[in-house]
Each structure stands twice: as structure tokens, then as C-alpha cells.
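Q: Give me the 3D complex with methionine sulfoxide.
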Amino acid sequence: MSHRLIPLSGTKEEIYKQLLPQLRCLVEDEDSHIANLANITAALKSTLGFFWVGFYLVDGPWLVLGPFQGEPACTRIAYGKGVCGKAWELSSALVVDDVDKFEGHIACSAKSRSEIVVPVIKNNKVIAVIDVDSEQLAAFDDVDLHYLTEIARLVAGLPGL
Ligand code: SME
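A: Here is the predicted complex, encoded as C-alpha cells.
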């Protein structure tokens, strides 16, 4: 399968809708989870224009930074800490409209104003999270939640994770 994306256009929902089958194709013939997660973040950043998008992977008591697109970020987040660690603890997605109002938010970049974190769940355990940051307040809604949850499902089924 080609690694090239067909150009996408339309509303955010239309872009996600066109992107999802292309993400499936992008990862189907590759066994390296690093390569697959890297391409998924690149596809999300280049099509949806996210400020920061990346994966943190569960490693013992930590979430450790994995493939991402955007500015350099914190490398380790403890269980229950920050938005990412909280989503891990709760095993549930979190949409934060204003990061300054989220107690314990970890500011990797002062430019980040809102955030969505979706857990990747395999065999009833969180194995990673997808984290997306925006420079705008309240940038994420149910559309992001829906499609990023679909992408988390795709990621849960990848070899090597
Ligand atoms: N803000 C996150 C930390 C990761 S960065 O946003 C890339 C948090 O509070 O968990």
C-alpha cells in the first residue's frame, strides 16, 4: 500500500471520515508499531492541522513519549498525573476546553490552550493514549472524540503493541 494520502477537504468531520480508511491502509502491511504510530501522527497533523499530536505508551508506572508531531514534549508522565495520566487512570477519554482550568495539567508548551486525550485499550487495559493539543480554547468536540476513539481502536489492533 502506498504511504501517500489522497488529498482531503471539507469540514473537520468530512476530513476524519476520509482519513480513517486511509489510516487503515497505511498500517495494514507494516509490523513496526513505531513506524505505524509515526505515520498516523503525521497523517493527523498534515490533514487536520493539529498544533501537537502524539502517543504516550504505557511502560510500567509511566506513560512514555512515543511518536508525535509538533514541538518537543515531556517524555514521562506518571499514572494519574496531567490530562494524559488521568485518562489512563480513568480508562476514559478527556476533553479539556481550557487547560488552565484542569488541575494538574502538565504544560509541555505554553501555547497549548485545549486538549483531548483518548486511551488506547487492549484486553481491557490502557496500553497508550493519543494526545492532541490546540493553541485555541475549546478546539475539540464530539467529532474529535468519535474519530480519535476509532483511531484508538485501530491502534489497539496493531502488531507489536
Ligand atoms: N498536557 C499533557 C502533557 C502532554 S503534552 O500536552 C504533549 C498532560 O497534561 O498530560
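A quick observation: The beta strands are 52-59, 62-69, 76-78, 94-96, 114-122, 125-134.
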